[in-house]
Amino acid sequence: MTTEQSAMERTSNDVHSFAKPAEAVAKHLDLNIDVNFDQKVLSGTASYLIENKTGTDQIIFDTRGLQIEKVFLGDSNEETTFELGDEKEFLGRPLTVKIKPDTKKVTILYQTSADAAALQWLNPQQTAGKKHPFLFTQSQAILARTWIPIQDSPGIRITYNAQVKVPKELLAVMSAENPVEKNATGVYTFEMKQPIPSYLMALSVGDLAFREIGPQTGIYAEPATIEAAAYEFAEMDKMLVAAEKIYGKYRWERYDLLVLPPSFPFGGMENPRLTFVTPTVLAKDRSLTSLIAHELAHSWSGNLVTNATWNDFWLNEGFTVYFERRIMEEIYGKEYADMLNVLGYQDLESTLNDIGAESKDTHLKLDLEGRDPDEGLTDIAYEKGNFFLQNIEKAVGRERFDEFVNNYFNTFAFQSTDTDKFLNFLRSELIKGDEALAEQINIEGWVYSPGLPEGFEAPTSTRFANVEEACQSWKNGEPAAKLNTKDWSSHEWLHFIRMLPENMTQQQMAELDKAFNFTNSGNSEVLAAWFIHAIRNNYTRADKALETFLTNVGRRKFLVPIYKALTATPEGKKKALAIYAKARPNYHAVSTVTLDEMLK
Ligand SMILES: [Zn+2]
């Protein structure tokens, strides 16, 4: 086949999916699976209602590591032939099913492999309750295909129903309408009426309890965690109200949270109707809940209007960070949101440093062909995306910008958009030929150029000015215990720790630790930032806490910089490898893929 032909045949422009949705596309999924904790496999059927757009004789699904037993057509379940193509690294294998021009239904009998990357099977010891096993999925970016044969592209949307059979003492929940209590049969049914992209397919099974927060909101967690979670997230209803005030009605009916065991690799995952969240935000003081604002904001940017390919990831994350900060501003005021902006800017700077400010990977519009999207997605999409949108807001004023964003969400609701579509919409609905405005907005500089555009003004924070002052007086010799740190939030502490000198003496480290108890902090953000200094300055008094943290927590955002700091010296690397050998079974594949590479 010539390259010209293959380009023509590739009817989707998603380089991370084998599907050809312009020819034959799935519209609805009926999933019927058994969850087997002993063998660590899911097995059952994925039955699709399809649309054959061109009268083609085949439909293609994505699979990775799946065992396909049989495939049937129609309601009469007539067996058909299928072919699994060659395995491609991280993409898996295309499943090509023979269909007829009038085929409406395709049923695939399959089972997962024990090492399916989306699935993390936890033994009882790895849970808060220690009595029952636990399972959760992480489908983003292209891992849905490791637990369901599916057209695994964010440009394709399906509705779904599911029936899931689990051990009787456990509850199953999905990114769908959910049960609130266990039943005697262990069989649960689900319905997701709104069409969603495959990366939002989600399932979790465990000893779960439910607690209502508001009329539309609630929390699922292990019984051992539910009280702490209900306290920490008591303001989620307020957040929903604030979000609706800014960008209109929430379109998914309920908004619930599922608090996972600590090995969850991300802060949160915006599975529709049921955000999955790390327990590392349970700080006991509600200080890390901007993460919930972020996941909630995805109910508009991402879940409602979806990036069509992973190259357009900034449309999901840039909008979501922008919206998250607006929600936090609405509830806690501008000074609070300013702190988040400054911390975000610091993250962005360090990412630009890491990948090089001239790298094409710092463009908003990415080119991830030939790469695992999960490895190519960085803070750029989040923070540079956010600052681009803040820049537009600044140029046209908040009122006009909000009107535009509302219009954008309504126009593309339950659809996918790519960078071109968004930029065309921006030109036609907001810029409208105003050349001075176009220059201010600077699409070229933000979207198709590396680093940050010339003239970009870094965000500032008045609350952080106090922190900087305190840090400076400590550097000038003021005892740590005498610094004015009254009423500091997690964000102020994080800023303070980040501002500390790279090189400190044992006495300085011990003095700070004595005054502020960093090594024993119950706040994961504070701990993770402090450990970096402890490692750099060989502050061995933190060793035990560090090891406990690394063996319990699986959140990649914390693990990567800590392991990286450890590997900077030969002794540190030895320590890292010893801890990693112990901790690795507790990490999700999303984290081990990154860490295996770093520690090999
Ligand atoms: Zn996000």
TrEMBL record:
Domain of life: Bacteria
Reactions it catalyzes: Release of an N-terminal amino acid, Xaa-|-Yaa- from a peptide, amide or arylamide. Xaa is preferably Ala, but may be most amino acids including Pro (slow action). When a terminal hydrophobic residue is followed by a prolyl residue, the two may be released as an intact Xaa-Pro dipeptide
Top-rank EC class of the record's enzyme: hydrolase
Coiled coil, from the record: none
GO BP terms, alphabetized: proteolysis
Binding site for Zn(2+): 294, 298, 317
Binding residue positions for a peptide: 138-140, 265-270, 555-557
InterPro entries: Aminopeptidase_N-like_N, Aminopeptidase_N-like_N_sf, ARM-type_fold, LTA4H_cat, M1_LTA-4_hydro/amino_C_sf, M1_LTA4H, Peptidase_M1, Peptidase_M1_C
Active site: 295, 382
Domain Peptidase M1 leukotriene A4 hydrolase/aminopeptidase C-terminal: 462-599
Protease keyword on record: yes
GO molecular function, one term: zinc ion binding
Protein name, UniProt field: Aminopeptidase N
Organism of provenance: Pontibacter korlensis
